[in-house]
Amino acid sequence: MNNKLILGTVLTSLLATTGVVMSDDDHNERENRSGFFSRFFTAAGVEPVNNQQYKDECGSCHFAFQPGLLPGRSWVKMMSELENHFGENAELDAADNKQILDYLVAGGSEKSNYRRSQKINNSIKNSSTPLRISETPYFIRKHDELPARYVQGNPKVLSLSNCEKCHTTADEGSYSESRINIPGVGRWDD
Ligand code: HEC
Ligand code: HEC
Fold this sequence. Notes:
Distance between the termini: 49 Å
Strand order of the largest sheet: 1-2
Bound molecules: heme C
Largest sheet: 2 strands, antiparallel
Number of helices: 8
Radius of gyration: 18 Å
Helix content: 25-40%
């Protein structure tokens, strides 16, 4: 083999093993977990949380939502009014607030190479700054078939904000339909 051929072979097998070569549908099970390749190629899912300070401060009352689930401007707004955070006081000292805000904005949906983040981002009008992931058009479209008895009326779920109750691999950034298991209801098959 000449050098070009060898390089081509190496590249192709690299792409194949990292899951970069994927079909573009929402039902794909192979959500990419590699942060490295996502910087250069589009990956499935949402980039997993990789910041312990964020997990500690923002994952104590609820699931630590991935930064790529909302645009940067949403995080800016949310972090500026933590003393009134959905009826709770989630205030942080200035240094922690700044560090967490930087982390969230750097991973905001408008900057992400992850396909799920891009879909969320594309669904939000530039003029809108949602504070809830569950109020973004993409999210609403994906969850509008869920009857209230599976969510609010389900003592093991209670709110659509509790992603990890139904999405068994939510903490890995994978929201594939095939990984959904609604407590007391079972796997989702539509
Ligand atoms: C004192 C408890 C508490 C802390 C700490 C806290 N939150 Fe929350 N958060 C809440 C409550 C309560 C809700 C509303 C949940 C619901 O409606 O079911 C919420 C909702 C949210 C939502 C909207 C979820 C949705 O429905 O889409 C986001 C995003 C969020 N929080 C981000 C953060 C971030 C970022 C931090 C860290 C700076 C944080 N939270 C810290 C209590 C907290
Ligand atoms: C009550 C269970 C439940 C909760 C809570 C929930 N989801 Fe879902 N989610 C579903 C179901 C069921 C679907 C599949 C809907 C369909 O396409 O038929 C879904 C679909 C999705 C999809 C699209 C998956 C695909 O393959 O098309 C994403 C992304 C998603 N949810 C993210 C979230 C996030 C983020 C949260 C939390 C803020 C959340 N979900 C909370 C049940 C839930």
